[in-house]
Here is the input.
Amino acid sequence: MTALQHVKLGTYYVVNLPEPDDFDLWRERARALVQCDVPPDRIAWVAPGGNADLFSHGERRMPVPPADASEVRANKRFVSLSKNGILHSDPERFALLYRLLWRLQANGRLMEDKADPEIRRLEELDKNVRRDSHKMHAFVRFRLVEDEEGAEHYVAWFEPEHHILRANAGFFVRRFANMRWSILTPAGSLHWDGERVTEGPPAQRGDAPGGDPMEDLWRSYYASIFNPARLKIGAMLKEMPRKYWKNMPEAALIPELIAGAQKRESTMVDAGSLDMGERPETLEAIDKAIHACRQCPIGNLDNHAVMGEGPQDYGKGFSGLMIVGEQPGDQEDQAGRPFVGPAGQLLDRHLERAGIERRAAYVTNAVKHFKFVQRGKRRLHQSPAAKEIDTCRWWVESERQIVQPSLVLAMGASAARAMLGKTVSISKARGTPIPLADGSELWVTAHPSYLLRLDGAAQEEQARLFDADLAAVKERLTELAG
Ligand code: URA
Here is the structure.
């Protein structure tokens, strides 16, 4: 009997997927089923842990598509959302993906339908998985142990919510290429020996070691970045759910820091640093809030807030790069967009030379309003004070948390201060990445308007250094994209 006869007879197919995260195998099976015209309600997708016996009447041999079967249509957006969606722990995910693939054959523009409940569900799966990966990048904490030969080995325990372990191997290999490490989880483990990744069986918390001196470093780092004026317990729990605390040495400090927060907050308010409220959860909310922000005197000048711009979603053309400048200038203030004036045009030329696509980066500023003094008809740029940058850090940090770049390029001292909370020397900091607490990295370089103020040999020299910094950023972005 041919596959098409099977289908006509109402054959029910049982598709076994030996791995819960194997997109390629799902795709291969789904293509064949579509080409054999098998409707979604005639398929049971069975992944590990699923009960294949429930479908004992089903056909386990895959149908073979006829030689003249037409090509299966699947657009980029479907593939990119599905690659993440398949990592979700929802057992219904394979069937959902198949239903969408089935519908895509009849409607090539299906993925544009924002109101479609199945598309919305797929977007939700994608979002949950990205969030879980982000948490893994941020909250995996390695403990140092010695193996039998006395060699150093770093071991971490992590409990992901979805099947993200294998998909994130590349991230940890790139970030910790020079360490030998293992990440243990209840669903499996990963080991890196400096050359190869191997997979191991599920582990238990007790298989991972307890504390070590690295933790002191994390603790003091965390205490130094903890901002009592920003303390909103609900928001903190959302960002750093309690279940991760036990693996994170710095979390031991949380009760103590909360207890001391009120006292520190009143000191900060005295010192001029104010509570900005709940952290906004969308870029639209930040945009709205910065227009109303009067936390420092710059917002009271005759100007407009300028929001960052660019994609924020890896599946939708985001390269993972966030570029931070100082503050909008006169032209940016009028256009309501960052980096459109002379410094922006110079930046564009250098980015192009380095092969960095500005459209694929999120571009923003440390300070959201233009600070100036009026001289006749002209508005002359004034640098923001450290206190003003520190107040505005709230917004750029909120943007960063939403955009989740893998690499931040801070241009100039104000941008570097906004990202680090302290002043650094550009000449010392440039060229070497600075790790940020969420696992992303900060690269520091000069501001393009510094180049505009120079001429002759000095300008040539600074342009050369700027190009070298951008070339290094481009190389690193390529590496991070794996
Ligand atoms: N300089 C900046 O720092 N940002 C802009 O948006 C424009 C000029």
